[in-house]
């Protein structure tokens, strides 16, 4: 199995799974630490862990408990599947609400992230000093910003926006 997720290949998880032997127990805090979707969790549980006779213990969350190969009844499997689906749905809802909140803030002219360290006034000072022949390194040191930050701000300001 290619241990991939919405974030791509996960080599550390792959290494842990490969190191497990029959009778071992993989202990995780929550299911979303090893799988990003219900399908991914079920594939990992059935194809990787249970096929190798490895137990899975989940410490918290809706799927908490010990999940043993050949030790589950149909009802246990169904409950685990429903719980995993609920966790995935919760994750999707959180993502959806976050995107809605960002869009609402954006519509009000608010943007997240770190404020720029070089504002228009600082940029004007830097340009004036640069026009007098001062080096970007000394200007950056005087203004208290990084040299690469100042180079980037100067380049961005020179780039026409259209």
Automatic annotation (TrEMBL):
Protein name (record): Resolvase/invertase-type recombinase catalytic domain-containing protein
CDD domains from the UniProt entry: HTH_Hin_like
Keywords of the record: DNA recombination, DNA-binding
One Pfam family, short name: Resolvase
Family according to the record: Belongs to the site-specific recombinase resolvase family.
Resolvase/invertase-type recombinase catalytic domain location: 1-109
Organism: Actinomadura meridiana
PROSITE patterns: RECOMBINASES_3
């Amino acid at each position: 199995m290619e241990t991939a997720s919405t974030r791509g290949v996960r080599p550390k998880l792959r290494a842990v799974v490969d190191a497990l032997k029959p009778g071992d127990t993989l202990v995780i805090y929550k299911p979303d630490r090893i799988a990003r979707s219900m399908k991914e969790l079920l594939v990992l549980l059935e194809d990787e862990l249970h096929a190798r006779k490895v137990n899975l213990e989940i410490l918290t969350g809706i799927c908490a408990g010990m999940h043993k190969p050949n030790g589950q009844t149909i009802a246990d499997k169904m409950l685990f599947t429903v719980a995993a689906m609920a966790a995935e749905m919760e994750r999707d809802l959180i993502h959806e609400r976050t995107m809605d909140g960002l869009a609402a803030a954006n519509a009000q002219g608010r943007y997240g992230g770190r404020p720029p360290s070089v504002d228009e006034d600082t940029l004007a000072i830097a340009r004036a000093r640069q026009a007098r022949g001062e080096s970007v390194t000394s200007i950056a040191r005087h203004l208290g910003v990084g040299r690469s930050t100042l180079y980037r701000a100067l380049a961005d300001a020179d780039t026409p926006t259209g």
